[in-house]
Amino acid sequence: MLIHLSSWPEIDARLKSDHPLARAVVVPIGSNEQHGPTGLLGTDWLCPEIIAHAAEASDDSLTVAPTFNIGMAQHHLAFAGTISLRPSTFMAAISDWISSLARHGFEHIYFLNGHGGNVATIEATFSEVWAEWSFAEARPQMTMKLRNWWDLPGVTGLCNRLFPTGHGMHATPSEIAVTQAAYPERVKTAAYAPQIAPVGPIRDALDYRDRFPDGRIGSDPAQASPAKGREIIDLAAPALIKDLHAFAAEPLPQD
Amino acid sequence: MLIHLSSWPEIDARLKSDHPLARAVVVPIGSNEQHGPTGLLGTDWLCPEIIAHAAEASDDSLTVAPTFNIGMAQHHLAFAGTISLRPSTFMAAISDWISSLARHGFEHIYFLNGHGGNVATIEATFSEVWAEWSFAEARPQMTMKLRNWWDLPGVTGLCNRLFPTGHGMHATPSEIAVTQAAYPERVKTAAYAPQIAPVGPIRDALDYRDRFPDGRIGSDPAQASPAKGREIIDLAAPALIKDLHAFAAEPLPQD
Amino acid sequence: MLIHLSSWPEIDARLKSDHPLARAVVVPIGSNEQHGPTGLLGTDWLCPEIIAHAAEASDDSLTVAPTFNIGMAQHHLAFAGTISLRPSTFMAAISDWISSLARHGFEHIYFLNGHGGNVATIEATFSEVWAEWSFAEARPQMTMKLRNWWDLPGVTGLCNRLFPTGHGMHATPSEIAVTQAAYPERVKTAAYAPQIAPVGPIRDALDYRDRFPDGRIGSDPAQASPAKGREIIDLAAPALIKDLHAFAAEPLPQD
Amino acid sequence: MLIHLSSWPEIDARLKSDHPLARAVVVPIGSNEQHGPTGLLGTDWLCPEIIAHAAEASDDSLTVAPTFNIGMAQHHLAFAGTISLRPSTFMAAISDWISSLARHGFEHIYFLNGHGGNVATIEATFSEVWAEWSFAEARPQMTMKLRNWWDLPGVTGLCNRLFPTGHGMHATPSEIAVTQAAYPERVKTAAYAPQIAPVGPIRDALDYRDRFPDGRIGSDPAQASPAKGREIIDLAAPALIKDLHAFAAEPLPQD
Amino acid sequence: MLIHLSSWPEIDARLKSDHPLARAVVVPIGSNEQHGPTGLLGTDWLCPEIIAHAAEASDDSLTVAPTFNIGMAQHHLAFAGTISLRPSTFMAAISDWISSLARHGFEHIYFLNGHGGNVATIEATFSEVWAEWSFAEARPQMTMKLRNWWDLPGVTGLCNRLFPTGHGMHATPSEIAVTQAAYPERVKTAAYAPQIAPVGPIRDALDYRDRFPDGRIGSDPAQASPAKGREIIDLAAPALIKDLHAFAAEPLPQD
Amino acid sequence: MLIHLSSWPEIDARLKSDHPLARAVVVPIGSNEQHGPTGLLGTDWLCPEIIAHAAEASDDSLTVAPTFNIGMAQHHLAFAGTISLRPSTFMAAISDWISSLARHGFEHIYFLNGHGGNVATIEATFSEVWAEWSFAEARPQMTMKLRNWWDLPGVTGLCNRLFPTGHGMHATPSEIAVTQAAYPERVKTAAYAPQIAPVGPIRDALDYRDRFPDGRIGSDPAQASPAKGREIIDLAAPALIKDLHAFAAEPLPQD
Q1: Separation of alpha carbons B107 and B248, rounded Å
Q2: What CA–CA distance (Å, rounded) separates F250 from E32?
Q3: Residue F252: how many CB atoms within 10 A of its CB?
Q4: Which of A119, B59, E236, F37 is most buried, judged by most C-beta within 10 A?
Q5: Is this complex scored with an ipTM above 0.90?
Q6: Domains in chain B, start-ordered, CATH in brackets?
Q7: What is the interface size between D and E, counted as CB pairs within 8 Å?
Q8: Does the pLDDT of residue E254 top 90, yes or no?
Q9: Distance between CA atoms of A69 and B68, rounded to whole angstroms?
Q10: Confidence of residue A254 (pLDDT cuts 50, 70, 90)
Q11: Does the model's pTM come out above 0.95?
């Protein structure tokens, strides 16, 4: 069930049902940022959306929230089209999403993340949310989990097999392949050099552009193909369902 | 050109071109909130997205940002599936979007809005952004505009003709028709009474639910149909293009 | 009863009484900003104060708070004497006023506003305040209303009759007339051209000064006179009392 | 010159003149809070306003801003009619006032304060404003001063002579006398006991009400009279002018 | 008992005991900032730490928190090694310390302060914390006190006797003597002129450095010696214990 | 050179020198939180302080800031003595430390961290700081690095050799050993069971206490000894010096 394509009575009925996933929700979360000479700017929010929607299409008992499409991408701001929230803004926004979902009775809020640069801020937000309860000596009525889609069981192994060299860390062939599978009419090609991009630390936007002139880090995205992307999606979607079931099975503590 | 389905070099080239719309960008913005017994929770962000994407499909010279899909919907929080930002959070997030887009050289940032409840906060955000420049005695490098899609020239007139009674203010047949045109497989029906919902002031979430038990305000959404939605889209999309051209033609002041 | 010229036991007794307006309070709110070549910088906070105090003078059962005299005037900052809060600051301050008044048992908080530029931020603040309750699934113990003084029943009609041309939107003859009636010793004259000022969009302070070099928008303030101002006050004050009664008669919802 | 009763060209001309006080401004600042059984809720903002306006009336070369009428009065919130800002809100608001005034070229911003409870927050705000410059290794274009009206040279001595016993710290006969001189029609009487109120620490609102049931601290306000108030004003107003001249004579440092 | 050198079961047992100081805690708080040509940058946090630890060493019934070592020192930022929080940051941090300690049942939280520049912000923080309770019409479960170490009974008298001239206000011989007693191997000497530093107002960092080129205000720190420092500590430590007992003996109000 | 035990002229001279580490600074950062039945509450800030001070003692060319002793420990708040900042507060405070140090010309700011729970928030803070520069299209004048002390080259290997079983994740024998080496008089013993504590996810404070009743996660801290701690320190201190040299050798990018 995609929340945004459902009516409120449908969500209400779902929440009141006794399905194991009734009060669990998947929030695809990513970033809109440069992905090298050929990658789509939306790659990092499209990938978790594609996987979550594929999972939902195969099993309607999943509830999927709209996609949180802008994340923490300050280091990519020297490349046109990148949109970033400051970490403090990102924290406030995630926190309001969580409060909204918890307000309705969602007890297991699962963020399926598509951008490594989001991880620290999402985790800090979880702590900010927990802290409200911890200072108040009270029990929260929900719990939260962060999962990067490439950390779903089996996915990284598959990516390594598909792209034994030149996978890299940004504008990777695996994430680009996932978007190619979903948007085959948007496959782009470009010449780039070196074949495998350099690696290095991530700092501010101008420093990033100095180090990684075409935006890639350690990757050779031309290895991507729609077929490989489909293979990844086909592995990731059921892995997500299984992972969500495990999470939703954890009871909330009570006094 | 949809930013999220483009690469950064494509956006970069667009920004450096001399097309009249080269440095203008449309940001669809809305809300994910209950829309009565039959409306989609995503209605308010889907409508501007549908219209903006239709405009872009007919004229690639438009640049369209990803959709800002969560807005100010605190009053709908007593209905399942609603997700809301607090106004202060919403302001911070919009401000970061604007800063990001301006950073790349977008000079005319046009928000196509789908939710009346967003208007005050978006306008307050514009003032917050302008204030940074005004206190500093400096000239901003961009300008911003807010347009509700129903205020595009001709649209309200058409809606009044299509739905002479029972249009109302929330869960209106016009907005629901727009989503039906785009998602015909998601058309929902439900019995509701009274045929035309009551009207009244908007306050907090529990008060809202007391006043408007099924979520509608003044509307009779069963009048919606995919065909009527298509008619609205077909009028709104070219009106958007024209409106954007007028906005983009305003020069930025310089000393 | 003017709060600031009363003692706390007087306000306490009022709150505990059973008068229909016992737990209602009027807060005059405006802005301190340029009002063209002849208007007082205080015009926008003086007008609601003048009207509210006139109403209170005729009917002591009104409770009037001190005047909130600085609002959102960032666009006027290029003119000497303007003082502005940022929207975010304005929201925090209004919110604390509301919390203070509600703390004492005021249940109907009525803002009589004198500055169009305040409207978006005041409405966003109301949403921020409601959101606290909406996220908490709780009922607020008060309700709030915003009314511009020129929207009091009959007032705009009268202004249009008094000033059929050249009323405009800023430094209008009607608002200047109201201040002239109250401060006849401060009536100022100045040559200005054109007779009716231009109109246009409102953005940052330097842009504003470019578009509206003497500060006026669309107005010809020389048409103002103390007598006309008195006429407006005499209409607005009883309209305020009546409007407040209607608002105060709305019961707070309870479970 | 009272800013709110002047036009912007008048303030503009003043700022460009070469009078020693041309770029100095007095901001009366206080609080709206209970002042015992007989004191006006507005006492703490009325006193600095009365004194500043008296000084301005005797010497038009003073520029006086509108009165900042709501301050930090959280400890008085258990008494009806008190309105308080949180310290963090108060800081943001004062900071915006300072930024606005500095924007126009005011170089010496002088806060004439009427509420002891404001002092810490005003001083913290000054530090917050200075910090912006200090972190940036830059020179501010203005300087700020805080002066409580009772600390104007000679005033405390006079108050001690007028009220050798029972002056106290809150709802003092001296401040009440000042308001009586300005608002003789608002003189209130009430029985209270003990004749001289107790003293003690200031904490939260409920604790305050426990310790000081009628709101007074250490004072016997019945000793106030309009004549004594006039005596205080007549001393304080010229002391303010002199103090402001001394402050305005300090040059701003330059590199 | 030093919290940071104790285990949680030890603190837990202490809190549950019936000792008069069981639920009282001393928080040494200061600043890391320049202290003239010879003073240690840590002087202002070392002094309260030294005194509190000396007191605890003589009487284990004192509970001493870790030292809050960075305060409000924006005016010293033009001197290398100074670290400052903005007042708004400082307030947030102190507030979280207080919330943490109160969470465990500490009812009397006593800040032993070593930096005059902290006072306004600490007091504003107390008001911010109280305001939470005051707006909510609730009773806090703790109370707070601020004491500068030089205001402990007898200490200023001793300092005046030890340093009848040239004590001054910053980089004073008394505070430097206290650090010399504790860190005799870190005694520094330097030539400076004039022998007694100038005095004046405190504003931003560049202004401060203009006025006080070597950092001192009004002081002649070469008069310090480890022996004099020991004398001060030996007086201050028992004074702290006595003062804390008096504070801890105040019962928390209850309804 | 320990900043807090130095004078400002000493730090100033260091900054102006041409030593490879002249403009590098180590900031020990940790947390004050429960460390199981025997660990010191200060363990997480004491460990990086002990290691950094040991390094400085062996090589005075290191500049070490005061210790940032309170971090993000919301999950430990159900255990007495824990003090935590909220992530948002922590971010503001770290940011002010960085701004202060950068203000003086420190170009390489190295955080030696002692608490895993701090990592996300520190990294989010770095992004917040970088974002200021990235949005402004400007180059920062410093760079930052985070290193957990156990990630210094060789340290984890040694810890695994010393404690092949029962090392765990919280209240580990290695961190407790480090504090025992530095504070041998504070070695504590206690009976606990099971010998090796359980593991699990970290959420809010009450949940944490349910899962980990005595505070430990996966550890058997009784294996700690002062001698083992000394071994760890003796490895970590030179590793820190080497790591800092490598970091300080990275030039800041320039246009």
Answers
A1: 8
A2: 28
A3: 13
A4: E236
A5: yes
A6: 3-248 (3.40.50.10310)
A7: 121
A8: no
A9: 8
A10: confident
A11: yes
